[in-house]
């Protein structure tokens, strides 16, 4: 009696199981590799809050006046030179000019009035950070097409971060 040999190959169910497993693996890898816009917004907001706090500490320790200038896509710090000019401040790495991660943009209000921001270059200082601990009252809203956060500073230098509802 002859034995029938089974044809070599995979069954349809085996192929479907492999495809499902590959889909799950690829999906999980893509979620971990690619930050969502919401995560980038959160990171940029926390970074900005920390950097402004650092600038406040530096101003008090060095008895130096700092200022912050925003663009739609980032910010830059300035310091008041002995000659009375506002010059870009790049001495501390954390306070160097910074561009927001895509797709984060900014909108700034000084004393409740919206500031016209340049799309590219940080121009005149907008928020003044004094060695006395005082600060120009401001609010900076960082946003994407789906969410926003607002960082505010009051006259006494108190900073707050608020997460706004999804737009």
Sum up the structure in keywords.
167 residues, alpha+beta, minor pseudopilin epsh fold, five-stranded antiparallel beta sheet
Question: Your description of this structure?
Answer:
It is a single chain. It is elongated, with a radius of gyration of 26 Å. The strands form 2 sheets. Strands 1, 2, 3, 4 and 7 form a 5-stranded antiparallel sheet that branches. Strands 6-5-8-9-10 form a 5-stranded antiparallel sheet, with helices on one face. A hairpin with a 5-residue loop joins strand 9 (148-153) and strand 10 (159-163). It has helices spanning 12-33, 37-62, and strands spanning 66-71, 74-80, 86-88, 98-99, 105-110, 113-114, 127-129, 138-143, 148-153, 159-163. It is of the alpha+beta class and 167 residues long. The chain has one domain: minor pseudopilin epsh fold.
């Amino acid at each position: 009696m002859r034995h029938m040999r089974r044809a070599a190959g995979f069954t349809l169910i085996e192929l479907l199981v492999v495809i499902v497993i590959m889909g799950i693996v690829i999906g999980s890898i893509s979620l971990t590799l690619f930050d969502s816009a919401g995560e980038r917004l959160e990171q940029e907001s926390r970074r900005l809050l920390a950097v402004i706090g650092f600038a406040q500490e530096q101003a008090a320790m060095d008895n130096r006046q700092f200022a912050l200038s925003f663009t739609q896509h980032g910010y830059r710090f300035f310091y008041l030179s002995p000659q009375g000019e506002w010059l870009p401040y790049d001495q501390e790495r954390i306070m160097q000019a910074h561009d927001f991660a895509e797709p984060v943009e900014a909108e700034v209000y000084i004393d409740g009035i919206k500031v016209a921001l340049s799309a590219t270059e940080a121009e005149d200082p907008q928020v003044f950070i004094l060695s006395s601990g005082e600060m120009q009252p401001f609010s900076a809203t960082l946003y994407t097409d789906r969410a926003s956060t607002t960082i505010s500073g009051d006259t006494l230098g108190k900073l707050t971060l608020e997460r706004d509802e999804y737009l």
